[in-house]
Write a structure and sequence with these properties.
mainly alpha
Length: about 120
């Protein structure tokens, strides 16, 4: 006859540890790939945001002497969209827009303003 300590229904410390290892393994098998995909997507989103910011900077630098170039105006309209959380850049952007408007004749200033509004409406569609 078997005593209860070594019997079928006895539960020892090593059995408890094996159960914990099994649970941890199942948890890792299930949630590991999900977490890996989330980390990869977050990295891709940060990389894409950084690429768009650099593209805006690059386009502004390419067209800095051509303030009425469509690429320049379009890129200026994107500054508000891409840098909405960066107060320093938004402040500099508004100062730049005010500076542009000071040196333009009134009829050209109105044309530029209408072009910006039309272009902005095009991007919101």
């Amino acid at each position: 006859m078997m005593d209860c300590q070594n019997g079928f229904w006895s539960f020892q410390l090593r059995d408890f540890i094996n159960t914990l290892v099994l649970c941890a393994t199942i948890f890792a098998i299930y949630f590991g790939p999900i977490k890996a995909v989330k980390i990869t997507r977050d990295n891709d989103e940060r990389r894409e945001k950084r690429r768009r910011e650099f593209e805006i900077f690059s386009n502004l630098m390419k067209t800095r002497r051509m303030v009425l170039d469509p690429l320049h105006v379009t890129t200026l309209n994107l500054v508000d969209v891409e840098f909405y959380k960066n107060e320093t850049i938004i402040t500099a952007y508004r100062a730049y827009i005010e500076n542009l408007q000071k040196f333009l004749p009134d009829n050209l200033n109105m044309l530029l303003t209408n072009f910006c509004v039309t272009d902005t409406m095009h991007f919101s569609i």
